[in-house]
Amino acid sequence: MKKKKVNLRDLKPDSETQHSHNDGHSHSSEESISNLKIYLPAIFSFVLLIIGITVDYFEAFPHFSGWIRILWYVVAYIPVGFPVVKEGWESIKKGDFFTEFFLMSIATIGAFVIGEYPEGVAVMLFYAVGELFQNAAVNRAKVNIKALLDVRPKEANVFRDGDYISVSPEDANIGEKIQIRVGEKIPLDGILLSEKASLNTAALTGESKPDSILKEAKVYAGSINLESVIEVEVTNKFEDSSIARILDLVQNATSRKSKTELFIRQFARIYTPIVVFLAIGVTFIPYFFVDDYVFRDWLYRALIFLVISCPCALVISIPLGYFGGLGAASKNGILFKGASFLDAMTKINTLVMDKTGTVTKGVFKIKDIKTIDWEESEFMKYLMAMEEQSTHPIAKAIMEYNESGEDYEAQDVSEVAGKGLKGIINGKTVLVGNKALMIANNIDVSTETESIIESIVLVAIDNKFAGYVVIADELKEDAKETITALHKVGIKNIMMLSGDKDSITQQVAKELDIENAKGGLLPEDKLNEVETLKQNTENKVAFIGDGINDAPVLAASNVGIAMGGLGSDVAIETADVIIQTDQPSKVVRAIKISRSTRKIVWQNIILAFGIKVIVLILGAGGLATMWEAVFADVGVALLAILNAVRLQRMSWS
């Protein structure tokens, strides 16, 4: 069955989705009214059907016969039947005859033709309820995800006529000067005019460490200015900028992604023409074999056959199974953007993952402190007194160190461009920075620092090397157990791709026991790696990421999985599955839930189809009435509901 795309809502609240208490209450009321409108046709038909059946049974109103009775059931039929008949007619006009809508239409209209009005209404009503269940399943999964956000910066402060004015990035010209305030995204690619800048480029490159750059260095659209106001000269039009290029990659990758159809539609394409031709056969074939053949009697039997053949139980049981899976996933902090991705997840055998923000926390922490001839606490007091003057993310990580006693105060602190800080503490000259700062001041640095690949802060006190602090991005608590669990569920091929330095990527991969890892990759490189894996048709690839730079590969993979808690809006929208808690271990749980769901769905299909075949045979032989068929469908639907509910109570630890 064709389903219309549903607009999504954002996982994370922002200025546009935050409301006051009163406003939220109002929206809740509007939503309740909207939901009531959706169910009103089915409720209306159900009430009229029950009243009609009650009057028929008790014969309470003698005048409830003839055209009055027909009109009553027609009115009961129209709210649930008209949309289906209309859809069937639209499909016929497009040349698609054997749709589920067509089968439902001729079966229920046929019931009216032979005078079985309550049965005709009841069958269509059950079909309508099944559709409501299916829509509810999809909507429930998507309620917290927003439609694709345009992450382009909305404005650029361009210097024109002696002043900065705000214009759309598309209206800025090459060679113009733009100003970017602290916390703003750089709207266009360009060259830095200011003396220095600290930029967060994680969304573009996956690099966990903020990028400190000097005058005349290249800067890219989408980077976030972390410290002081900076000026940039535009070198590319917006359509040629880094963000526009990434968004274009997303669009192209999405267009290459095949859409998975649910089993019900594939099955209906085979099932529907078969039962239609069998019904025609039930009507006419007996003419050649039965002596007392009466056309009206066999037409009646054929129409009963059609009513019995309506796939109501299938229509209800299949989406109910997915509904259970989607609901169970949501309870576990996992959002699937549709039932088809539950199916796709069961086939995954290759997992590719980003590093920063996916298996690491994406924030700096002190990893190691090494001192030479200094007590650690004393050493850290000197270092913290210097770093207190800085707003750099590394400085913030150092300031989180817990030390007791009186704090030291740094004086005459000055910044050495691109190298570090110099100051006076307790009458001693203190240097804090990189190796270039030490060399410039003739400080001999321990050779062991050369083998350290993470960010390192070197410290010299009184012109002697005093030690160093290693700053690194922390692994998430469940990162290692995730890899072990993935192997246990049968995912043997695991690969890490990162925009971070290759040396850091390899070290993290080694810690996690991931054999295949590549670092220093651009978005295009990640995309190429996944496309290469997909060239082997046996590989069903899932990719886990969180940044804008991950969006193209999320779209190109068979299943894209985004970290929803800290992930970028584009990554969340492009992905098929969102992990709301940012825990990579939830990926394993998502695989287990999808496999359980598929098992339940197939149980429901076999149950519904098996009983349907039995009743069809009885109906063709004249041994079953339409009411028996309707109640058989109800029984199967109830069993399917109970089976699907099991998913809500299962545990996937």
Automatic annotation (TrEMBL):
Where is the P-type ATPase A domain positioned along the sequence? Answer: 152-251
Pfam families listed in its UniProt record = E1-E2_ATPase, Hydrolase
Membrane spanning residue stretches: 38-58, 64-85, 97-115, 121-138, 270-290, 302-323, 600-620, 626-645
Q: Which reaction does it catalyse?
A: Zn(2+)(in) + ATP + H2O = Zn(2+)(out) + ADP + phosphate + H(+)
Q: What is its EC number?
A: 7.2.2.12
Would the keyword Transmembrane be found if you checked this record's keyword annotation?
yes
Where in or outside the cell it occurs: the entry states:
Cell membrane; Membrane
Keyword tags: ATP-binding, Cell membrane, Membrane, Metal-binding, Nucleotide-binding, Translocase, Transmembrane, Transmembrane helix
Q: Does the keyword Metal-binding apply?
A: yes
**Region of interest (Disordered), ranges:** 1-29
InterPro entries, per this entry?
ATPase_P-typ_cyto_dom_N, ATPase_P-typ_P_site, ATPase_P-typ_TM_dom_sf, ATPase_P-typ_transduc_dom_A_sf, ATPase_P-type_domA, Cation_Transport_ATPase_IB, HAD-like_sf, HAD_sf
Q: Which residue windows does the record flag with biased composition (Basic and acidic residues)? A: 7-29
Primary site of residence: membrane
Domain of life (superkingdom): Bacteria
SUPFAM superfamilies noted in UniProt: Calcium ATPase, transduction domain A, Calcium ATPase, transmembrane domain M, HAD-like
Q: Which NCBIfam families would you find in this protein's record?
A: ATPase-IB2_Cd, ATPase-IB_hvy, ATPase_P-type
The record's annotation in PANTHER family points to: CADMIUM/ZINC-TRANSPORTING ATPASE HMA2-RELATED (PTHR48085), CADMIUM_ZINC-TRANSPORTING ATPASE HMA4-RELATED (PTHR48085:SF5)
Q: Which family does the entry's similarity section mention?
A: Belongs to the cation transport ATPase (P-type) (TC 3.A.3) family. Type IB subfamily.
Q: What protein name is recorded for this chain? A: P-type Zn(2+) transporter
